[in-house]
Amino acid sequence: MTGPHGNVDSSFSGTAREVVQARDVRGGIHFHAPAADRAAPPVPRQLPAAGPGFVDRCAERAELDRLLDDGAGARVLLVTGTAGVGKTSLVLHWSHTVRDRFPDGQLYADLHGYDPQAPVAYERVLEGFLLALGAPADAVHADGEYMAAAFRSRLAGRRLLLVLDNAAGAAQVRPLLPGTPGCLAIVTSRHRLPGLTIREGARRLTLDVLDRDGSVALVQGVVSGYRDGDDPAQVAELASLCARLPLALRIAAERAAGRPLMRLADLIGELRDESGRWEALSADGGEESEAVRSVFTWSYRALPQDAARFFRLLGLHPGADFSDTAAAALAGVDTRTARRLLDVLVAAHMAEQTASDRFRLHDLLRAYAAAQAGLEEAPQEREEALRRVLTWYLHTADAVQARVAPREPRVELVPAGAGPPAPRFADAARAMRWYEAERDNLVAAVRAAASGGLDRIAWQLAVVLRAVYMTNNPFRDWLTTSLTGLEAARRDGDRGAQAELHESLGMAYAQSQDLTAAAEHYESALALRRELHDTFGEALTLNGLGLLELRRRNLDRARAALEAGRALFAALDDRFWEPRVAVNLAEVELELGHPGNTTGPLRRGIEVFRAHGDRRAEGNALRLLAAAELDSGHADAALAHAEEAMAIATEIRSAATEAHWLLALGDAQRATGQPARAQDSYRRAAALQEELGDRARRAAAWDGLGQACLQLGRAEEAADCHRRAAETFRDLRLPWETARTLAHLALALDHLPAPQEAADVRARALGLLTEFADRRALRLRDSLVRRSPPGDTPP
């Protein structure tokens, strides 16, 4: 929507739950976290440790060196090969040897291309990469194409190494590739990915199993110090039974090292027995997959009974990695016991430790563990294990909500299962660190609960997560969990939960600029709230719906919804929400052209927000008060309020807030006869919005800059700014904003020898204004008519 003085506010600037501002039509509602200081770009160092026991693979490393040094300057290297052949190990070892050639850092992502759930979406990877490269949190949003372009822009002129591990296909990788020379992406996959070689010119290295000498060397390296005097021919036979695959070789070698007094021939006999058993049970898979399964079974049966049970239960974990505490919850044991059992699995190469308290299973081992759980655990035991870990995630997410959104209504949770209790967090920062570490697992947990028949856990977790999502705005996660949770709530027959999730979906769809879907979900939520006589919930939904209608410029509907919500909060004597809805209502009055109706509610709101220490809400009310004063002809007062709002924006360190409120400052500076300073404010806002990807507000900054340039006597430059702004608004299908900007363009053209273009522009603006009948729109129409040549005015 358009602010009172021509600058566009394409978003909710009021308060809906934790909402203070919303993103433009490319991003939707946005809940701002503090942005990092804008300093020199960080240098990411994301390469994981290469790991011990690597067999040199001299020929393959030399080939990678040759491809890197090739005069053609390859941007993409592709390492392919069968599962367990050592692709990741080779790439990580080689990457560490060449990292000094990429002084701007390294980025790493495991794409989980063969995960039992689903590969990682490229948008999720881009989010992490952009943040690692110094993009403000406000710049990370739902538009994957925008993020891909922003990522390529940040790579331009820099030398970075990207490792994209375990890719499922070319479509997953393509948006993550650098667009210019200087950076190198190295991709691993079980597939050949011919699309990357054809379209992107990737150079491929196909990794084979180890040769005889290499496989013997790997086994001898693992058993060294534990076994002496093994016959090299028998070591070679052991390697052959493992199909010379590094993953299988390490597990078999660790098994041999753990039984130093047993003859190697006897160990080989055991492995041959397992191999024969697999051959009898399976008629497909090939030599390599059969060898891997045989080694897995051989090592699994050698585990202590408690470690074997722990291993197979880990196959039921919904995510790709896990903490020691989550593993404890899954198994129903305390954390100390879980750590002891994880140590046993890591020592046997049946699990991998990725951080001090985090672990993962190779995807082949994870599939094997799940299969063993299906064979050896009763259905009830499997469901109980899943319930334990899901309720642990639910209760811990609830503890996060208690810190980051303490005013959100709480859900009466299903009881937690056996195992460690959910942690309690000392502050919001620690709570959000836990959330970031578990973000993917939480989405997987909602899906697993829904697919596993645990509907109440599924919708409760979705409702709890909404409060977290409102603070950092991960659209895809938000939409996925809310849609899954809504279906689970329907199956569970819980109407209150359905209302909560409809409202959550209203927020999420508005964030993604699907305003029609957003309105449908808000209306569904409102009907359910009224059916349930939930007065507080009804008031909250009316507030959100009013802000959505404000954004759609349905101003009468926005006012009606907000007035109804405010009345309900007043009846409830809710002194927290009533002034917030009053501020939102004041913004509608501004848009309707009634600034005199706004100053009282805005001043009262500022007092309440100051008393509550809510600096962002206070700053937003000050920004609106500046607009109201400006609309009333009090330019000096407007400037004082705008400067006070900007001081708060600087204090809370939010890039999007600063970029937005700079527009109000520029308006006030123009009105007080300071067009040069206004020009600086608008340019700063445009630069920030370029970084944030907010196209509508960037266009608003161009429009304001054009007005400042005209005041400075630079009419041609002013016209260029307005043309750029109008073109963007037109592309974004924002007719009101387009009409306002065209009116400003016509004024600039009046100062140039372009009377016909000025007349044409006014006619276009008048045509767009026919769908608006509010006071501000009628005033704009009248001003355009007065300046239009006779006969050029539309009916």
Any overview of this molecule?
- It is a single chain.
- The two termini are 25 Å apart.
- The protein is mainly alpha-helical and 795 residues long.
- A 5-stranded parallel sheet has the order 4-5-6-3-7, with helices on both faces.
- A hairpin with a 2-residue loop joins strand 9 (352-355) and strand 10 (358-360).
Q: What would you say the CATH architecture of the domain at 58-206 is?
A: 3-Layer(aba) Sandwich
Strand content: under 5%
Q: How much is the average pLDDT?
A: 88
Report the CATH topology name of the domain at 58-206: Rossmann fold
Helix content: 55-70%
Distance separating the two termini: 25 Å
The CATH homologous superfamily name of the domain at 58-206 equals P-loop containing nucleotide triphosphate hydrolases
CATH class descriptor of the domain at 58-206 = Alpha Beta
User: What structural category do the secondary elements indicate?
Assistant: mainly alpha
* Poorly predicted segments: 1-13, 18-38
Biggest beta sheet attributes: 5 strands, parallel
Task: Give a quick set of tags describing it.
5-stranded parallel beta sheet, Serine Threonine Protein Phosphatase 5, Tetratricopeptide repeat, 795 residues, 63% helix, 34 helices, 3-stranded antiparallel beta sheet, mainly alpha, Rossmann fold, single chain, disordered N terminus
Per-chain topology:
Blueprint: E1 21-22, E2 29-30, H1 58-69, E3 76-80, H2 87-98, E4 106-110, H3 122-132, H4 144-155, E5 161-165, H5 170-173, E6 184-189, H6 194-199, E7 203-206, H7 212-223, H8 232-241, H9 246-257, H10 264-281, H11 286-302, H12 305-314, E8 321-323, H13 324-331, H14 335-347, E9 352-355, E10 358-360, H15 363-376, H16 379-404, H17 428-451, H18 455-472, H19 475-492, H20 495-511, H21 515-531, H22 535-551, H23 555-571, H24 577-591, H25 599-612, H26 615-631, H27 635-652, H28 655-671, H29 675-692, H30 695-711, H31 715-731, H32 735-750, H33 755-769, H34 775-787
Helix pairs in contact: 3-4, 7-8, 7-9, 8-10, 9-11, 10-11, 12-14, 12-15, 13-14, 13-16, 16-17, 16-18, 17-18, 17-19, 18-19, 18-20, 19-20, 20-21, 20-22, 21-22, 22-23, 22-24, 23-24, 24-25, 24-26, 25-26, 26-27, 26-28, 27-28, 28-29, 28-30, 29-30, 30-31, 30-32, 31-32, 32-33, 33-34
